[in-house]
Each structure stands twice: as C-alpha cells, then as structure tokens.
C-alpha cells in the first residue's frame, strides 16, 4: 500500500504522521509529545477516475468481438462459408491484429478453394502471432497440398517444436477446441508420411 511519512513542526510541538492510502480513505496516525493519535481522513485521496467512454466501449467490444467470432465459426461449421467469411472480414476491419480471426478466415478460404487468400490470411496470422501452432500447421498442410514439400515440412517441424513443451491437454487458441497433443500427433504424422 502506498504510504507517506511526514514530520511537521508547529511552534515547540513536533508532529510525525504516517498516512496509508486505502481506497477512498487515507488512514494514519500522528505522534504529538510522545502520544499516538489515530487519524482517518475520508476522501483525502481523489477516487479513481470513472471509466472513459472509450474504455467502456472497449470493454463492451471485447465480449462482442468474441461472440461475433464464435458466430463466424458456427456459420463456417454449418457450411455457410460466405457469411462466415464476410463476418471475419468485418471483424478484421475493426482489429487487423486478431490472429484467431485471420486463422478462421484462412480455414474458410481454404475450404472455398481459394489458396492464395488462405495463404495471405495465414501470413497475417503468423505476423501477429508467430508462435501460433495452428497457423503453422494450416500453412504446412496447404504447402504440402500444393507440392511445396520442403516448406511444408519446415512448417510442420515448427509445429512440433512449438508444442514439444506444451501440456498435451491444453486447448490451443484459435483451434476450435483442438488440444496440443492432438495437433502434435497430426503434425508428426505429416512428417512421417512425407
């Protein structure tokens, strides 16, 4: 807790004060001529500033973004790829640095057969989150599909390296519930078969 110690002189008297800030109150004591006196000064410290409009909007936007991303994922899971893609693009217009949305957009583009768009979304996801094992995995699988064996293998090796020290039961961000252990096994399978 923040505290302040002060020594005051008034005439022949000496006052020693210690104040401790606790919420809206400052509690303390003072010593006068060897006697200790408690002292509580309500509202001696200004209350914390109320949240600004922008902070309030950000606080509301975070759950809304998460809900919108979940909606986009649900649409994609039900085969409604174009509305899911449109929603992802709208989310990215508001926050270009969201790796999970880039990753979902890449998966949607891959499912639609638009490899170039999928690769671009993955490059952006990896720029924002270079340690994203799901993004490296999807990049590797796309590279293998298009005959770029060496680059695909390197991407899968990166996945194995990233997940080697991760708890196997940990659910990976942006993977729609996939665990580290399952993705690690799949990446190792790619490496063994190719």
| Number of separate structural domains | 3
Average pLDDT level: 78
State the secondary-structure class: alpha+beta
> Termini separation (Å)?
60 Å
Q: And the CATH topology of the largest domain? A: Serine Threonine Protein Phosphatase 5, Tetratricopeptide repeat
Helix proportion of residues, in percent? Answer: 55-70%
SSE order, as H and E? Answer: EEEEHHHHHHH
Q: Are there runs of 5+ residues with pLDDT below 50, and where?
A: 1-32, 35-48
Tertiary shape: globular
CATH top-level class of the largest domain? Mainly Alpha
The number of helical runs is: 7
Strand arrangement in the largest pleated sheet: 1-2-3-4
Label the CATH architecture of the largest domain. Alpha Horseshoe
**Percent in strands:** 15-25%
Largest sheet: 4 strands, antiparallel
Radius of gyration: 28 Å
CATH superfamily of the largest domain: Tetratricopeptide repeat domain
Please give the number of β-strands. Answer: 4
What does this protein structure show overall?
The chain has 194 residues and is α+β, with helices and mostly antiparallel strands. The chain is built from seven helices and four strands; from the N terminus they run ββββααααααα. It has three domains: 3-42, no CATH class; 53-130, Alpha Horseshoe (Serine Threonine Protein Phosphatase 5, Tetratricopeptide repeat); 131-194, no CATH class. The chain has helices at residues 53-77, 81-94, 99-111, 115-128, 133-145, 149-163, 180-193, and strands at 3-10, 13-22, 25-32, 35-42. It is globular and about 40 Å long. The termini are far apart. The chain has a four-stranded antiparallel beta sheet, with no helix packed on it. A hairpin with a 2-residue loop joins β1 and β2 (13-22). The longest helix is centred in the middle third of the chain and has 25 residues, at 53-77.
């Amino acid at each position: 807790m923040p505290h302040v110690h002060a020594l005051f002189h008034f005439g022949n008297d000496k006052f020693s004060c210690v104040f401790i800030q606790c919420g809206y109150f400052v509690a303390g004591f003072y010593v006068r001529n060897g006697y200790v006196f408690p002292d509580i000064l309500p509202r001696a410290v200004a209350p914390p500033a109320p949240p600004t409009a922008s902070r309030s909007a950000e606080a509301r936007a975070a759950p809304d973004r998460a809900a919108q991303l979940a909606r986009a994922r649900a649409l994609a899971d039900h085969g409604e790829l174009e509305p899911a893609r449109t929603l992802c693009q709208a989310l990215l217009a508001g926050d270009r640095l969201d790796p999970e949305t880039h990753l979902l957009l890449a998966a949607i583009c891959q499912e639609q057969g638009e490899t170039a768009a999928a690769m671009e979304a993955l490059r952006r996801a990896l720029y924002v989150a270079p340690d994203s094992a799901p993004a490296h995995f999807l990049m590797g699988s796309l590279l293998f599909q298009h005959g770029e064996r060496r680059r695909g293998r390197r991407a899968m090796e990166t996945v194995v390296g990233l997940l080697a020290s991760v708890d196997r039961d940990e659910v990976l961000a942006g993977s729609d519930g996939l665990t580290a252990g399952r993705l690690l096994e799949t990446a190792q399978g790619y490496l063994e078969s190719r």
